[in-house]
Design brief:
HTH_TetR; mainly alpha; 69% helix; TetR/AcrR family transcriptional regulator; 11 helices
Length: 236
């Protein structure tokens, strides 16, 4: 006779909580059984082994993520829907980093879980709507692969950086670069000074001692600020 459903859910909830609080290393047989109030054999009866439990926890994470995506709904602008989906993806990963690493970081080459496939299907649907609107410059498969690769790569990158050291504009910049690439839309015109500032910053190391270390550091900081500017902010 199988264990009651409530027992399975209690184990899942305990494992998910341990994952959020202590990361993957905190999800052990002993910790989960203690947190769920069950004996270790119960875990194996429900999930075969710890790998099966982790797969179930990852699937639960995908379900939560997809529920949030569905809650966004769809608008009359399919490209904006891709933007909204991108922003939600990044936000979910940074809000639930341990879950995200489990969901997207545990893969057998050439295989994809059913839960991950549901997430991929949702992205495919969003991209197909852009294609149907005549706004896609590449194939649906290529666009979906580009968006997923860039979004997941960015999320992994940001998870590895302390929150206070993250560039808050990076997600939006990369999002627009990818969307411009897959739709063929030209980016909005921008002033040339960011490029000039970046070029000057790259040449600072060739000044041959003309500037003091303090002057070079200050100039480098100012050039970084100009180089990262899109010309959409003006002094008060």
């Amino acid at each position: 006779m199988s264990e009651p459903t409530s027992t399975r859910q209690r184990i899942l909830d305990a494992a998910a909580r341990l994952l959020e609080e202590h990361g993957r290393d905190g999800v052990t047989t002993r910790a989960v059984s203690h947190a769920a109030g069950v004996q270790p054999p119960t875990i194996y009866r429900q999930f075969t082994d710890m790998n099966g439990l982790l797969e179930a926890v990852a699937a639960h994470g995908f379900d939560t993520y997809l529920a949030q995506k569905h809650d966004l709904g769809l608008t009359d602008d399919p490209v904006q829907d891709l933007r909204n989906g991108w922003d939600l993806h990044i936000e979910f990963g940074l809000t639930h980093p341990a879950h995200y690493l489990l969901m997207y970081g545990r893969h057998t080459p050439g295989e994809i879980s059913a839960a991950a496939q549901r997430s991929a299907d949702r992205l495919h649907l969003l991209v197909e709507r852009v294609a149907a609107a005549g706004r896609l410059a590449v194939t649906v498969e290529t666009a979906a692969a580009m968006i997923h690769s860039a979004g997941s790569g960015l999320t992994f990158h940001l998870i590895g950086i302390a929150p206070g050291e993250r560039d808050p504009e990076l997600p939006g910049r990369l999002r627009e670069a990818v969307l411009n690439a897959v739709t063929g839309d030209a980016p909005p015109s921008a002033p040339e000074y960011p490029q000039h500032a970046t070029a000057l910053k790259a040449a600072l190391g060739q000044t041959g001692g003309l500037l003091t270390a303090g002057e070079q550091a200050l100039l480098g900081e100012l050039l970084d600020r100009l180089g990262n500017s899109r010309g959409d902010r003006r002094p008060a």
